[in-house]
Amino acid sequence: MKPFEELAFYDDFMFGQIMQDREICRTVLEILLGIKIDRLEYPEVQKIIAPFYTTKGVRYDVYVEGGKRVYDVEIQNATEPNIGKRTRFYQSMLDVVALMRGQNYEELKESIIIFLCRYDPFKKGIPCYTVERKCREDGSIRLNDEATLYVFNCRAYQNAQSSELKGFLKYIECGKAETDFTRRLQKMVEIKIGNEVIKNAYLSWSLAEHDAIRKGRVEGLAEGISKGEQKNKLANARNLLAMKVLTNEQIAQAVDLPLETVENLAKQL
Fold it and tell me: Residue 83 in contact with residue 116, Cβ under 8 Å?
C-alpha cells in the first residue's frame, strides 16, 4: 500500500479524487481530445457496471456523460498485456447498460474510451493511438459506430501536437507541473493530501483493495488445489482400470469419483 502522503495525480485513488471535479474533468477531456465540451454531467469515479448479478462486471476509473457522448477515462500505471480485449469488454458494458435502459441501438450515444498509459502499449513512440473500426480491404470505408478508443502513451509526451497536451502527459509521466493547468492539478493534490477525511477514505479504500486481492489469491489457490486433486483422481482411476481387477463401481468408490466418470474413462481405454 503506497503511503497516502506519497500519492501522485496518476495514482488510482488520487486520480479519482481530482477527476470528480466537473471542471477539472472537462478540461482534461478537452486537452486530450482537442475539442470543446459544452455540457458535462458530474463524473462518477470507480463506477461499477454489472448488468446481471451473475455476470462479470466492470469498474470504470472515471465515467461521465455529456450531451450525446459518454466518456470513460482510465489511468494505467502497470503494463496491460490484453489492452485490446479489455477495451472491447469496457465498450460492450457501456452499450449493454444503455440498451437495458430501453434505448434502441440507433439511440446509443457516441462512446469515447480513453486510456492514459505510463508506458508505450504498442511500442511505436506515438503519443496518442486513435483506434476506430474500418474495412481492412478499403481503409476509406469506416463502420461509423461512433465508438472510439484513445490510448495515450505518456512517455511520448515530447511528440504531442499541442503544448497543453504535452504538458499534461509530461505531468502524468514525470510528475513535473510546468503549465498553468498542471500546476493547478498539483496544488489540488497537495490540498487533498492535507485532508484527514480523504486520508481515512484512502486507508479504507486501500484495505478493501488489499482484501479483494488476497481473496482472489486464496480462491485461485483453492481452485488450483481442487484441479490438482481431480487430476490425481482421474489418473488413479485409469491405473486401476488398466489393472482390470476391480469393477467400475469399486474403482469409483476407491478414488471418490462418480460412477459415470469412471465408466467414461473405461470407454476411452
Answer: no
Q: Are 32 and 114 in contact (CB under 8 A)?
A: yes
Average pLDDT for the chain: 85
**Burial of residue 238, with CB atoms counted within 10 A of its CB: 0-12 exposed, 13-18 middle, 19 or more buried:** middle
Q: What are phi and psi of 192, to 5 degrees?
A: -60, -40
Q: Are 108 and 146 in contact (CB under 8 A)?
A: yes
* pLDDT mean over 191-195: 95
Residue 209: partners with Cβ closer than 8 Å, 6 or more residues away: none
**Residue 96 scores a pLDDT above 90:** no
Question: Which among 37, 10, 259, 176 is positioned nearest to 166, based on CA atoms?
Answer: 176
User: What percentage of the chain carries pLDDT values higher than 70?
Assistant: 87
Strand partners, 151: 115, 129
pTM of whole model > 0.90? no
pLDDT at 53 over 90: no
CA angle 84, 87, 93 (to 5 degrees): 140
Listed residue (114, 147, 142, 143) closest to 129, CA to CA:
114
Strand (E) or helix (H) holding 221: helix 196-243
Q: Give me the helix-helix angle, 180-193 and 163-174, nearest 10°.
A: 30
Residue type present at position 71? Y
- Average pLDDT (81-104) is 81
Q: Which residue has the cell 477515462?
A: 73
